[in-house]
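Comment thread on ticket #2218

A.B. wrote:
> Attaching the input chain for the structure job we discussed in standup.
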Amino acid sequence: MPTRKKHQRLPNGYGSIRYLGKGRRNAYAVHPPADIDGNRPPAICYVDDWMKGFIILTAYKAGTYAPGMEATLELPNADGAADLKSVSSRLLADYSRIRGQEPQEPEKTFSEVYEAFFANKYKPGHSYSKSTITSTKAAYKNCKTLHDRVFRDLRGDDLQRVIDTAALKLKHSSLELILSLYHQMYAYADGQSWCDKRYDTFVRIDTPDDDEHGVPFTDEELKILWKRKEDPSIELLLILCYSGWRISELFTLEIDLMNQSMTGGIKTAAGKNRVVPIHSAILPLIVYRLKKYGTMLPFSTDAYRKDLYVALESIGLAGNPKHTPHDARHTFSRLCEKYEVRENDRRRMLGHAFNDVTNKVYGHRELEDLKAEIEKIKVEL
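C.D. wrote:
> Ran it. Output below, let me know if you need it in another format.
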């Protein structure tokens, strides 16, 4: 069902345009400013379009309104509607300045926030692959039902509904792209004061990951990977092998170099906001990557997969079955088991749920405890 357009808020003392409900020929009542007691005066007239009401109200404020003027108004077609909206915004801004008030900026729609975020992220001088840009655009396209919604008015349920609907026809990796776009857009909007709360943090992917299967890298394969750590895609693979993160979780990962820890997770209740200490072997790799890119993953997950497959093929580690980025997560789990990391700590760092109520409620572990456990893992070069 189509929703009624959102219009800019009129400043105090300008008057009001009141929507009376559908089913009326002239559904908008145009009122002069309220009196000193806050009472709303009778309507000047009734019109069939908000913009006509705005024109009437502006004429009334200017002293040029004449009864019956509304019947003579003709609005431009759809091609000129944007120009008319722009004119109304400028008039309101000028009016506010005359009154010594800061003009009220119209609320941003989802599309407007996306366009601003996109322009900021992909501005000249930032190096991103074509596939990364394409993935961002595809994720936005899959959020079509949100495009015209006011961004500040969106709630977690609105965002979740898009994910749940998309899950009926899209692969898990495409859902991850939508979730990643949410996180990036809300982070940008938060910095611009375009949202009141990070509702993206309440969204989850409920469908099983179609890439959860996998084969861990062997100790011999890890030795080969360490010899090729200068390759950017292998560098990141090693970081994943000794931390257990999914590549889709890297976009929102918080890295604390001072305390040598990583916090993040986007999928399950147990996986969200989990803390993983930075293993000493991968600390230099993380520091270098942050210095070079400013982030762990500067392009899309699809682009990374393509680069990694080429790199693994070149060193004879393509695998059979084919190795994927998710195999790094299985590798971390294998290493934890091999070096006897406490089972509960292994589950914590991987974000696996606890079936044992005691561990779920009372099993809190300090960062130093987790560091001691993860450092049990030895790197055999």
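A.B. wrote:
> Thanks. Noting for the ticket: The chain has three domains: 16-98, 110-202, 219-374.
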